[in-house]
Amino acid sequence: MRNGTAREEYQDQDHLVITAPRRGLTETNVRHTLPSMSLFNLKVDGRAHTVDVDPATPLLYVLSDDLELRGPKFGCGLGQCGACTVIVQGQAIRSCITPVSAVAETEITTLEGIGTIEKPHPLQQFFIEEQAAQCGFCLNGVIMTAKAFLDKNPRASEAQIQQAMSGVLCRCFTHVRMLRAINRARREMAR
Amino acid sequence: MSPVSPVNTMTPKSKAAAVPALAPDALAALRNAGFSRRVFLKGAGALIVSFSAGGMLGTALGQGRGRGGVVDPTIPNPAQLDSWLAIAADGSVTAYTGKVELGQGISTAQTQLVAEELCVPFDRVRLVYGDTSITPDQGVTSGSQSHPTNFNNAALARAGATARQALLRLASQQLGVAADQLTAANGVITAKTDPTKQVSYGQLLAGRKFELALDPNAKRKPFSEWTVLGTPARRADLPEMVTGKFEFVHNVRLPGMLHGRVVRPPAVGATVVSVDESSVANVPGLVKVVVKQNFVGVVARKPWQAIQAANQLKVTWTPGKGLPGHAGFYDYLRNQKPTRDTLYVDSKDVEQRLTQGTTVLKATYLHPYQMHGSLGSSCAVADVQGDKATIYSPTQGAWNQRSSSAMVLGLQPQNVRVIFRRGSGCYGCNGADTVTFDAALLSQAVAAPVRVQLTRKDEMAWGENYGLPFVMDERAALDAQGNIIAWDHEAWSAVLGGRPGNAAPGNVISGTLMGFAPGAFAARSPAPEPMQYDNGNNSIPSYCAGGVGGTSRGTGTIKSERSLLHNVASPFYTAPLRSPARLQNTFAHECFMDEMAARIKADPVAFRLRHLADPRLRDVVTAAARTARWDARPSPRPRNRRTGTVTGRGIACVLYEGDNGYSAMVAEIEVNQATGGIVVRRMVISNDSGPISNPDGLRNQIEGGALQGLSRALLEEVTWDQQEITSVDWQTYRSLPLGFSVPVIESVLLNHPEHEAMGAGETSITLVAAAIGNAIFDATGARIRQVPFTPERVKAALAQRA
Description:
Mean pLDDT of chain A: 85
Helix content of chain A: 25-40%
Number of helices of chain B: 21
Number of domains of chain B: 3
Largest sheet of chain B: 7 strands, mixed
Helix content of chain B: 25-40%
Largest interface: A-B, 75 and 69 residues
Oligomer: heterodimer
CATH topology of the largest domain in chain A: Ubiquitin-like (UB roll)
CATH superfamily of the largest domain in chain B: Aldehyde oxidase/xanthine dehydrogenase, molybdopterin binding domain
């Protein structure tokens, strides 16, 4: 990526399945000269925030450091694993490669925004029912990717769900339970 | 917070509240357990009379090691009950353990264990783990050792039994009823003949501690009375994890915390010539550039600023030292000198017996370096202030991390407190230890708390120690009746560094860069005679008798046997990766067993049973075959066409580490002979790890191990060029994503409460490459002897068919 083009490159990262991130889209060759701070208004999980950050700052860092949210996580910084996924305008996006400037003034939903321990979203509920986790680091990406997909495809087949999850990794390989939980949640959500 | 969350999941939000961010009842329980408040605040000074800590660690814990035999009053004494359990006045139980939750589910099982032994409900037990100031030193949480260490008659299990016995004794005195006429349930002790006579644990102890030594004669609760252990318990951490409330080490935030990044060399062996600090003078928020020998790092106020500074910093490095070619690496491995040789078994007659066989076979199997490949790159947070340090680390070995971090920082170990916080699943020595050193050093340099998270490339190319590469030669002879009469196994592997251990920070990259040497390679050839039976690496095939020192402790019948390993120096850091060496050796042994069965046209299951003596190993083989409805016949499958997609099945079995968990696996697969693609349709896995503590947790481990094994068997291989690692992200190191065609997995759990508890975290993964390799042969008649089974390698093997 060339200097100063980060924003344009990032903006088309709006699709949930990222099959082949462009080579070169790495942190190590992102260069900015004298980044200046700017104020951004963010709407996260229904709450308004104003942050003063470099416009190129990936959304992930704003969410996890400025706002101290624990849902989205840094997995790869390359949009390859899904751990940082949040939902913006119904789309699952990879917040590690989305500059904060691209999502200012839009509604951002994180894992904390879709349900609570007391009142979990069906996906959260069925992940508990199925005991679908080991270390749990990938859960954010798995649940948020599934939610964005099921919201748009409430009648998706198991095969379509599997396809939708093809850009998400779980290195504890809890796949069997996670796919079972997603399929159960789909049936619940379709009611 | 769910009511049963471990207190370990909480972090101080303010400096003043530093460690007492424990729930009030836990804090009270800690005090009751004999830890002064000073312990929480300063991470030092627990007033515990310790005797012969080294000896106790060795015996009481099974796995723990004495720290050079030195009595360390800052670590809770494992011989004392109060180091393990505390009961608050309200009757709530706090248990302290050194075995930490990495995602494998051991915190759930340990909570069940304590609830069971103390006769209290599961959710009344709070588990505290992996804090060097307040939990017993149980060494490293690794090697499938947590279940055997804490669930047999020692350590945590013994503490539970000792406590129940003590409570019954106290109740007997208070109620005036003989102890054997009392029954405990729900935290209350009641007279069997007069239910009006009862007293609760909280009343009995009234906030006092036990002040008792662990009693080796305390009776464990018999299996027949279990109500919590042996039933599927739910994980306490899941509600927080699925709702984004759970605190991973990545989420630890301390007041005034800064963000660090490391700058790794551009090539293996490159060293720092100069660092141009002026190159980052314009980076906003930069606090400091830190250089110590070949360690280079930056600290900034925000993560993005640290990233920019690390990217922009101009460092001049020497050229690398060059790497052996990836293409010819297995030959390099086989021919490298010097070697460190280890002989596991040698009946001295193998060469002679090999000449006497009616049929003689030999084959070579290859296994690459593989990665732990944690989903999240590793992270740690350190707060070094003067001569004291508090470190939040995802390490598997908090106590080793404490002493090795003390070396890095030049501090006294008793002034360093390491607090485990869960990281991304590690499966062995990922970047957890190295990033902890990074954070510690950077925090010391700026005298402020510093959080460091590695980049994906830093984790994959420089952060983690890889799983071992192996070349394995197998040779065997069979007599005219198809009995194996001799088996020889000779292997080459490469090692460098390892876990940091008690005093070897140089065993991981950061320590080396900071000036500590990796453990020296100790050449040794020829190998000394084996003194005792040790099949910890599964170097000896299951079908061999394992004759050492006049006795045979192996699981098989073949008496003419030799197993020899040559270790050589590795160009890359290595360390345990889930089923280290066990997986590689088992791949070779179990495929070779299949090759022999095919040669004499025997059914692979029957042929195995014919050479197995151990009844429990025979049982898991039989159970897997029966559940899979094994089609008893020789391989390859008759009438399979040589084009198109064909199906086949394969089996493999193991007694993990020679004494730590029995398992067998049947894999059913499809091979697309045009593309070389493999699709696994079904895996049937039997497992016997003694008593089952949490059946659902056990299934979860079996399933995860099976699919991680599948990813490793089909896709995973570390690559490099002439200077550096080229597997640097998920495009260059492939992992099966959630969307791949997931096989049906059927776990067959064999419960043996009459036997000792064994491990189950690494049994299923050990079998996958072998079971699939055997299934490929069954489907196609082509034998593939190199992991991973990429489409290119499958097609090459198909092309070589006779």
